[in-house]
Amino acid sequence: MKNTKNTNRNKILTGLLFLGVFVLNVFIIMVQKGEVPVQEEFVIHEPAPRTVFSPVNLGFIDEKETEKLRREKQAVTPPVYSLDLKVKTSALIKADEMSKKTLEGSEEIKSPHILEDTSRAITLLFEKFLTPGLFEDSAKKRLEDSGVTKIFKFNPEAKTETEAEVKNHLSLSQAKENAPAFLEREGFKDRDTRLSAVDIFSKTLEPNLFSDESRTKERLKQASDSVGAVMEELKRGEMITQKGALVTSKQQKRLVQIQKKMEAQEVRSRFLSVGLFVFLGLVLCFLFLRQFERKQLYSIQFPALILSILTLTLGIERITLLIPGSSHYLLPGALAGILLTILWSPAAGILGAISIAIISA
Question: Which sign does the torsion angle of CA 128, 134, 136, 138 carry?
């Protein structure tokens, strides 16, 4: 019973050993020197070293052009500014308190309409200049200097964003300058009332239109996403470059895409072919051991010895090919057969020679 358990365990270990060697051998063979980048062979504004035709039908996204169009779209997207509705309420309270203190004890307070007119004038001023939104001086100057003519104005009470002209919204200093003329147009004939209202208004006035970075970023993202990817298509047989002609950036970009496509196809085809040949080589080893060395097959040590020598030989071959100027004629494929003949038997040497030939194919 114990021997049966050991045999089953050894069978599982042997199977895992063959699987591990299969994966390792495929990896070793797939490692290779990289190809010369297209940018080094075909240099922009220099003569093309050879004529190239597209070997495949190819469609790809022109990332640079797409990014350029998205940046252009973002550049014309107005920034978002939010209205702070609390500013007007706070300013009215401060102005009312200041108005009462200013006029308190004045002889003119005996005229009831003075305090009332002053309060009404201040309220009209805040309604006029704060309701649409008032910029900080530096904020409006920055917008004008950068050539921005429109903004999106967010109203937190209505939770809406509306497009507005920058020129229709005054800065803090502009509002203070325009306040006297506005009161005069509104029919406030008493000069002292106007001066008092403007003085209190100027001292309590604060901007209420501020840059909203998070909403601006969201707007920019929406603008960027609205621009679809720029697709470019190549047909099989279409000429990309002509020998001796100056290489353009567009041609180089096409060559890069073709190289990527061909490399991907080559990796897939190489992986399938490599996997097939490694599988055949290992199957041959397994069948040989099962037929002629059945007792040794599940001893772990013997198959481990054979597979280790095959893997070692394959690794040396791969290293040899990575050396600049190396040739397939220099591959030490006979190493596996020689080592197995010395360490085990001529039959094992023949097995190693045949298996490494199949795997290295």
Answer: negative
Tokens in use for 71? 């940046």
List, in sequence order, every residue forming a beta bridge with 81; answer none if it has no partner.
153, 211
Q: Which amino acid is at 206?
A: E
How many whole angstroms separate alpha carbon 317 and alpha carbon 360? 8
Q: Which tokens belong to 288?
A: 């040989």
What percentage of residues in the chain have a pLDDT greater than 90?
24
Q: CA 69: distance to chain centroid?
A: 16
Could you give the CA distance from residue 271 to residue 27 in angstroms, rounded to a whole number? 9
| Pair 208, 134: CB distance under 8 Å | yes
* Tens-place pLDDT, residues 159-199: 889 999 999 999 999 999 999 999 989 888 888 888 888 98
Helix, strand, coil percent content, the chain, rounded in steps of 5:
65, 10, 25
The string of DSSP codes covering 31-64 is --PPPPPHHHHS-BTSB-SS-EE-SS-EEEE-HH
